[in-house]
Structure formats: C-alpha cells, structure tokens
Amino acid sequence: MPDASAAPIVDPGLFRLDGRTALVVGSGSGIGEAIAVGLATFGARVTCADSRLDAATVTAEAINASAAATGADVPPAEALGLDLLEPEDPARVLAITGAPDVLVTTPSINVRKRIVDYTDDELDRVVDLNIKGLFRLCRTFGRAMAEAGGGSMIGFSSVRSQTTEPGQGAYAATKAATVMLFKTLAAELGPSGVRANVIAPGVVETPLTKPITDDPAWYQAYADKAILGRWAVPSELVGAAVFLASDASSYVTGTTLFVDGGWTAADGRYSPNV
Ligand SMILES: NC(=O)c1ccc[n+]([C@@H]2O[C@H](COP(=O)([O-])OP(=O)(O)OC[C@H]3O[C@@H](n4cnc5c(N)ncnc54)[C@H](O)[C@@H]3O)[C@@H](O)[C@H]2O)c1
After folding, report:
1. Model confidence over 10-35: pLDDT tens digits?
2. pTM score
3. Which of 41, 78, 106, 139 is most buried, taking the most CB atoms under 10 A from its CB?
4. Is the CB of residue 206 below 6 angstroms from any atom belonging to ligand 1?
5. Rounded distance, CA 165 to CA 171, Å?
6. Whose alpha carbon is nearest atom 17 of ligand 1?
7. How far is the CA of 85 from the centre of ligand 1 (A)?
C-alpha cells in the first residue's frame, strides 16, 4: 500500500492573493480593466492606474460595487492617474502606493503602417509608450520591489513578438523588446525575490483592436488564424495574470505565457485535406 501521508500537500489557496497589493497600470480599459477586477476577486488590494483617471476610477468603483453587492471579502480598490509618457509619474505614484507585491502594466499603442511609410513622429509615438514609458515604470517599481524583498512584475507582449505581417514593424519590434526587457528584469531582480514575466495575447476584443473588429473581413481572418477559431475576450486573460501574480507561479520567471488560442502553434491559415 502506498503511504498516503507521503503524498505532496497542495495548498488550495495557491492562486489566492489575500494580503497582497497590486498596481495595475492600464486598468481603465480592455485587458488591464479585466485583470484589475480579477486580481481583486482573488483577494488583492488593487490600485487602478491609467493616464485616464476617470476610466481607472470607473474600474475601481466597479470592483467596490461588485464586492458590496455580493458581500465578497474584497479589499477596497483605489484609482490613481499615471501617465507613462510623463517621466516623473512612476516615482510620483510609487510615493503614494509604496512597492506593490504585484505590478501589471498593459498600455501600448500600434500605428499600423508599412515601415517604408512610417514617419519619425509615428515611430516616436510607438516607442515612447511601448518601450520608454514601460522601461521607466519597470526601473522605478523594479528597484522598489527589490528593496521591499520581492514581488511579481507582469508585462504585456503579443504574438507579434514572434510572428508579423505587413504594417506591424514598429509595434512588433516593441513587443519583442518587451520580452527581452522582462527577461532582463528577471535576471537582475530574481536574486532579490522579484519575478518578472510577460503575457503574450493573440487577438482580444478591446478598444485597441476596434479598427479590426469594425472590419468584418479583417476580424474573421484573425479569428481563423487562431487554432480555436475565434478572438478572446479580456476576461480570458485573467487566469494567466492571477497565475503569474500568485504563489502558483513561484518558480516561474523570465518566461512568456502565450494566451493566443494557438495562434503561434500552427502556421498558415490553410488546413490540408488529409
Ligand atoms: N487587444 C489585443 O488584441 C492585444 C493583442 C496582443 C497584445 N495586446 C497587448 O495587451 C496590452 C493591453 O491591450 P488592450 O487591448 O487592453 O489595450 P487598451 O487600449 O484597451 O487599454 C490600454 C489602456 O492603457 C491606457 N493608456 C494609454 N496610454 C497610457 C499612458 N501613456 N499611460 C498610462 N496609461 C495609458 C489607456 O487609457 C487604456 O485604458 C497591450 O500591451 C497590447 O499590446 C493586446
């Protein structure tokens, strides 16, 4: 008879975030909004940050209203303005929040144009937010989280870090750069107890992708590209974020978690008749 007492013990609260603090930058919309709600649902005290304070406030109020309506034991959420294009904003917000246990950051933009047609101004807009704003945020909060003794940093890449198409040059380059930024954060801050990972979505119905969802042919082509044959909705990114934020991922750092419906697993849009 096997010795049942020797079986590994799995904590059923492995994914819980009770007693943890989380700062979600980009929580005014789309994926960030869903993740702010998700982290709060799993017990984190969430600060919703966004360059649009009104939108972040709506998310925080939704978390608090939902907790009040259901009687769930969810710590009250708060909202703060944070503009990643303002170099001093990360430090200003850090002075208010202190080092969080979890940092999630989603803001990015995409200007879809062929490389040969790109203007310097368009390139600056994409790089200023997707790289420079992200870098400064991670520098400030990475330092603080390391000094505090640990935490989980979660960034957002994309399938465009791996596969591209005409018109994605600048965006794809920034999404590949995001992977390397977080791998380097993992390498530099791991000894201080900070883990750093990225989530790479496929296509998700949010305001960022509205130009595509408004175009039926483009929308369907992207649905067909995913093995699952459809787009994601923002709530389908929550599980990955809760995993990376919680002790369930205690040995996971420097990695990229694809939540892409199989987009990067299979090539082409053609199924041979075999
Ligand atoms: N939606 C998709 O299909 C998809 C696919 C792959 C990757 N992603 C990635 O996921 C992340 C989130 O995308 P989304 O679709 O939720 O985007 P979104 O545009 O819906 O939300 C982005 C949020 O960031 C905020 N923001 C914009 N500029 C800011 C700034 N300077 N400072 C602070 N906040 C700012 C916006 O106000 C908005 O609330 C992005 O990094 C994107 O590249 C999205």
Report:
1. 999 999 999 999 999 999 999 999 99
2. 0.97
3. 106
4. yes
5. 11
6. 208
7. 14
Which CATH superfamily includes the segment(s) 17-259?
NAD(P)-binding Rossmann-like Domain (3.40.50.720)
Q: How far is the CA of 273 from the centre of ligand 1 (A)?
A: 39
State whether the beta carbon of 161 lies less than 6 angstroms from ligand 1: no
- Asked if 171 is an active-site residue, the reply is yes
Would you call 120 exposed, middle or buried from its count of C-beta atoms within 10 A (0-12, 13-18, 19+)? exposed
β-bridge pairing 194-201 and 151-156: parallel
- Give every strand in the sheet of 21-25, ordered side by side: 78-81, 45-50, 21-25, 102-105, 151-156, 194-201, 256-259
Choice from 106, 235, 259 to test ligand 1 binding pocket (greatest atom count within 8 A of CB) = 106
Residue 266: per-residue pLDDT: 93
**DSSP alpha helices (H): ranges in the chain?**
30-41, 53-70, 89-97, 120-127, 134-148, 169-189, 210-213, 216-225, 238-245
d(C-alpha 167, C-alpha 180), whole Å:
22
43: helix, strand or coil: coil
Which residues are bridge partners to 44 per DSSP? none
Of 171, 222, 251, 270, which one is the catalytic site residue? 171
C-alpha 270 to ligand 1 mean position (Å): 30
- Residues ≥6 apart with Cβ < 8 Å to 11: 247
Name every residue whose Cβ is closer than 8 Å to that of residue 32 and which is 6 or more positions away in sequence. Answer: 24, 25, 26, 50, 104, 105, 106, 107
Report the C-alpha gap between 13 and 197 in whole angstroms.
21
Tens-digit pLDDT profile for residues 217-256: 999 999 999 999 999 999 999 999 999 999 999 999 999 9
In angstroms, what is the span from residue 156 Cα to ligand 1's centroid?
9
